[in-house]
Specification:
alpha/beta, Cytidine Deaminase, domain 2, six-stranded mixed beta sheet, 29% helix
Length: 295
């Protein structure tokens, strides 16, 4: 007997918010059965920027990113901060959400914006990134301009035992992942391992943008006394965003990329990967992690 999906029902999607249900043909132990399956929503979000600089008005879409709906304003603010469009919440005059898949951000008059940014229309998908030596140089150049807002994070030390507890603490707050198995998460902890905030999204970089954007709105940047925990791998763009937000310690359940390790070393960020099952690897700035059974 052959089991197939009804062609009409197979395309039907029901639900709302960041999780929907679709029909799926599930195969298990040699048998196939049609059932409904929860999946993470992925929809485009247009990020639009308006402002006035050097006697000229500008109004332009600067990015379209595939994301899970929710916390869209925070996502846009986090993205603009990570890209260097804004240096803080003081640069923002207003932000608004329109038509579900649109966020507009108006900058205060006089806030500069690069001509090159206005000239390009970028499409950012849910797993995008940038790479290359020039990218690292660009990040380091921007960090030098943010240096005056930083506090010294070199005296921060965290026990290895505390780091080992973070994956479970993050996992317990991944509601969308519980429903779908298809979303990423980024969480912020204090140096005592207490959860500060967590965000989920189908895109790894979106989850972090939402997290940083939420702290930006509260004027909590830089995050010099915080630990960032990532549910997946640590890629270059995530370390870039962490560096711009002043986060000194980044831990990820998955592996780091080579460029992520290089950038973390250059920025003095403590980067850990494969943080699971009470083990982890330290790839940079190991002086912040106290190792030993009783620490």
């Amino acid at each position: 007997m052959t089991t197939t999906l009804n062609s009409d029902d197979a395309n039907a999607v029901s639900g709302k918010g960041n999780v929907v249900e679709v029909l799926a043909l599930k195969f298990d132990a040699g048998a196939a059965q049609q059932s409904r399956d929860a999946i993470a929503v992925e929809e485009p979000l247009e990020i639009f920027v308006a402002g006035h600089f050097e006697g000229k008005d500008f109004n332009q879409t600067i990015a379209v990113t595939m994301r899970t709906p929710g916390n869209d304003e925070e996502l846009a603010l986090g993205f603009l901060f990570g890209e260097g469009v804004i240096g803080g919440i003081a640069d923002v005059d207003n932000a608004w959400v329109k038509d579900c898949n649109f966020v507009g951000v108006s900058l205060r008059s006089g806030v500069p914006i690069e001509k090159e940014l206005l000239e390009r229309h970028s499409f950012v998908n849910s797993s995008c990134g940038v790479c290359g030596k020039k990218s690292i140089e660009s990040v380091l150049s921007r960090l030098s301009s943010l240096a005056q807002t930083r506090t010294n994070a070199d005296d921060i030390t965290i026990s290895g035992a505390l780091i080992c507890k973070l994956p479970d603490k993050l996992r317990n707050r991944q509601d969308a992942f519980d429903s779908t198995g298809g979303s990423h998460a980024a969480a912020l902890f204090d140096c005592d391992g207490q959860l500060i905030a967590v965000q989920e999204d189908v895109g790894r970089h979106n989850a972090l943008d939402k997290l940083i954007g939420s702290r930006l709105k509260l004027s909590k940047l830089p995050l010099c006394n915080c630990i960032l925990m990532l549910s997946g791998r640590a890629s270059f763009e995530l370390i870039q965003k962490a560096a711009c937000a002043g986060i000194p310690i980044v831990a990820s359940v998955g592996a780091p990329s080579s460029l992520a390790v290089e950038l973390a070393n250059d920025c003095g960020i403590t980067l850990m990967g494969f943080v699971r099952d009470k083990r982890f690897n330290i790839y940079s700035a190991a002086h912040r992690i106290r190792l030993g059974e009783n620490q």
